[in-house]
Specification:
- This protein is an alpha+beta fold and about 325 residues long.
- It has 2 domains: about 5-180, Ribosomal Protein S5, domain 2, CATH 3.30.230; about 185-320, Alpha-Beta Plaits.
- Helices cover about 35% and strands about 25% of the residues.
- It has 9 helices and 13 strands.
- The protein has helices spanning about 5-10, 85-95, 120-135, 140-150, 205-215, 215-235, 240-260, 270-285, 310-315; strands at about 20-35, 40, 45, 50-65, 70-75, 75-80, 100-110, 165, 175-180, 185-190, 290-295, 300-305, 320.
- The strands form 3 sheets. Strands 1, 4, 5, 6, 7, 8 and 9 form a 7-stranded mixed beta sheet that branches. A 4-stranded antiparallel beta sheet has the order 11-12-10-13. It has a two-stranded antiparallel ribbon with strand order 2-3.
- Strand 5 and strand 6 form a beta hairpin.
- The chain is globular, with a radius of gyration of 19 Å.
- The chain starts with a helix and ends in an 11-residue tail after the last strand.
Length: about 325
């Protein structure tokens, strides 16, 4: 089996930094068809295809510089060297850079960290883009997507804006995010953040636990593959109802299979369930709005621009994202 070191060697040549510091931004992405399970733990290869929408200017800015010792700060808070975040960051850097070089990494997220809003995806994607500048790899985005995947599977989709798919191929050199050409200017994403704190069980832990203990996991994978094809078709046709219904079905299927794990994994809170009821109430009143939920209590709403005012009045705390709006200084 290919290990991470030999895999990275197939993608880039290790060399000395070309500059002393570099910065990059990457957007968070929300999976409409979820990534939940790995068929290769070492290289983060997924068991099913997934499809996401990036969140425009919501994501992570990362600066990396050569330093006397390893250092990490997130949102101006120094991260302890004993923490999981510190270990994941420098394990990743040691894969992609010579071990005798130390780095100072400063990250700022304009989304909550570790709360089910894909902050790790945008973080590792931005870190990969910054490394590409630091070392002057001049690597194509497909290569950078493969590298970012080693830090966080979903990061392979955060190299791009708009809709992105990630196929469940067996060849790790072909396992990268692929942007779709469809631009859907009227589409809006509404963020409902009930709890911005870090969740009690990480996505990675929950994913592996579900995969190894749920008796319904295989059925979820089979249905998810069908959902992926339907969502792909809905995007090509700009069929919003089909998109929303399928994304919501995929979400509830995911949380159902997590409930069937032993012990069950429950991310929803009373505020989550109350908001789900409100979304269903809106639909009963003829408003086209759908939801998706990842590994956390927070919800993302899917709707069209024409319904923005009505939905915003219904959810006063809603943070609205226009995923296809131009992002300043975006240069992957």
């Amino acid at each position: 089996m290919v290990n991470k070191k030999s895999y990275v060697a197939q993608l880039i040549s290790l060399k000395k930094p070309a500059v002393t510091s570099a910065s990059a931004f990457a957007p968070a992405n929300i999976a409409l068809c979820k990534y939940w399970g790995k068929k290769n733990l070492e290289l983060n290869l997924p068991t099913t295809p997934s499809l996401s929408i990036s969140l425009g200017n919501r994501g992570s800015n990362v600066n990396i510089s050569i330093a006397a010792q390893n250092y990490l700060s997130i949102n101006n808070q120094v991260v302890a060297s004993t923490s999981t975040a510190f270990k994941r960051t420098f394990d990743f850097l040691n894969l992609l850079a010579p071990n005798d070089i130390k780095f100072a990494v400063q990250s700022s997220n304009n989304i909550p960290t570790g709360a089910g809003l894909a902050s790790s995806a945008s973080y590792f994607a931005a870190l990969t883009l910054a490394l590409n500048k630091l070392y002057n790899w001049q690597a194509p985005l497909t290569t950078l997507s493969c590298l970012a995947r080693l830090g966080s599977g979903s990061a392979c989709r955060s190299l791009y804006h708009g809709f992105v798919k990630w196929l469940n191929c067996d060849d790790p050199l072909q396992s990268y995010g692929i942007p779709l050409t469809t631009s859907w200017e009227e589409l809006r994403i509404g963020l409902l953040i009930f709890d911005p704190t870090q969740k009690s069980i990480s996505s990675r832990q929950a994913m592996l636990h579900t995969q190894s203990t749920s008796p319904f996991y295989k059925s979820w994978c089979e249905n998810s593959i069908k959902d992926f094809e339907i969502l792909h078709s809905a995007i090509n046709q700009k069929n919003f109802q089909l998109l929303g219904e399928t994304a919501e079905y995929n979400t509830f299927s995911l949380h159902a299979v997590m409930l069937s794990a032993r012990p069950a994994i429950i991310y929803s809170k009373p505020s989550t369930l109350h908001a789900i009821e409100k979304v269903h109430e809106l639909r009963c009143n003829g408003v086209q709005v759908y939801l998706t939920q990842d590994a956390g209590p927070n919800l993302k709403l899917l709707f069209l621009e024409k319904d923005l005012a009505y939905i915003s009045n219904f959810f006063s705390e809603l943070e609205v994202v226009s995923p296809f709006a131009k992002v300043d200084n975006w240069a992957p």
